[in-house]
């Protein structure tokens, strides 16, 4: 798509097309190169648009990725909801959460950079829209998790969903090392053995977390839950 075509777009539908093109370009670049390596200028160039003109649609690069992250969260919600329809207990619940996260590397990449990068340099309005969308996803999934996992309350279901996103964000960059570390692991298998595989590690961690939640409740441990305080 050329810059000339974009500059001449005046109608609301053309402006929507421009936003969608920017989002699509940012998504494709992130999938190819990783979110941290994508610049606002790179997104603009990918659609043939001057960098200065992007500000008419998104205030910053980070606001673009918050919108993409919102789409990814909702897509994850739909996938988990579908899986939980056939869940037959705790093992299936944990598998549904972990496996659908493993199937979404872009979401996991963004989760790993959310609090350190993507939530910076954004407007209050953009942050509010994003947070409310994510809190809604976590609340709805928490309720569905509790329905499928007889040992958990709804609040604990929310905690488990929130924990899945937190653990996935922490594990993803470790399990997908940069080029220098990947080469190191190739050369030194003993060091590579310390690199945790994403899905098995996430599954085991979530299983342990889920098993511990009722014990914490029965033991009288109070305080705010992970889901209530920090869903990302």
From TrEMBL:
<dbReference type="Pfam" id="PF00440">
    <property type="entry name" value="TetR_N"/>
</dbReference>
<feature type="DNA-binding region" description="H-T-H motif">
    <location>
        <begin position="39"/>
        <end position="58"/>
    </location>
</feature>
<dbReference type="Pfam" id="PF17929">
    <property type="entry name" value="TetR_C_34"/>
</dbReference>
<protein>
    <submittedName>
        <fullName>TetR/AcrR family transcriptional regulator</fullName>
    </submittedName>
</protein>
<feature type="domain" description="HTH tetR-type">
    <location>
        <begin position="16"/>
        <end position="76"/>
    </location>
</feature>
<dbReference type="InterPro" id="IPR041483">
    <property type="entry name" value="TetR_C_34"/>
</dbReference>
<dbReference type="InterPro" id="IPR050109">
    <property type="entry name" value="HTH-type_TetR-like_transc_reg"/>
</dbReference>
<dbReference type="InterPro" id="IPR009057">
    <property type="entry name" value="Homeodomain-like_sf"/>
</dbReference>
<keyword id="KW-0238">DNA-binding</keyword>
<dbReference type="InterPro" id="IPR001647">
    <property type="entry name" value="HTH_TetR"/>
</dbReference>
């Amino acid at each position: 798509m050329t810059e000339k075509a974009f500059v001449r777009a005046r109608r609301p539908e053309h402006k929507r097309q421009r936003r969608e093109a920017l989002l699509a370009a940012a998504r494709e670049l992130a999938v190819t190169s990783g979110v941290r390596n994508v610049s606002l200028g790179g997104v603009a160039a990918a659609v043939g648009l001057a960098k200065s003109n992007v500000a008419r649609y998104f205030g910053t690069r980070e606001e673009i990725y918050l919108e993409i992250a919102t789409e990814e969260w909702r897509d994850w919600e739909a996938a988990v909801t579908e899986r939980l329809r056939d869940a037959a207990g705790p093992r299936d619940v944990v598998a549904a959460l972990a496996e659908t996260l493993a199937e979404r590397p872009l979401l996991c990449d963004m989760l790993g950079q959310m609090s350190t990068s993507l939530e910076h340099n954004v407007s209050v309005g953009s942050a509010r829209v994003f947070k409310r969308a994510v809190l809604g996803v976590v609340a709805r999934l928490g309720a569905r998790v509790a329905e499928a996992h007889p040992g958990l309350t709804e609040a604990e279901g929310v905690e488990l969903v929130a924990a899945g996103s937190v653990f996935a964000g922490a594990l993803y960059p470790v399990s997908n090392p940069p080029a220098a570390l990947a080469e190191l692991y190739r050369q030194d298998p003993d060091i590579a053995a310390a690199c945790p595989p994403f899905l098995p590690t996430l599954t085991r961690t979530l299983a342990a977390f889920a098993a511990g939640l009722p014990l914490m409740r029965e033991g009288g441990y109070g305080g705010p839950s992970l889901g209530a305080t920090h869903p990302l």
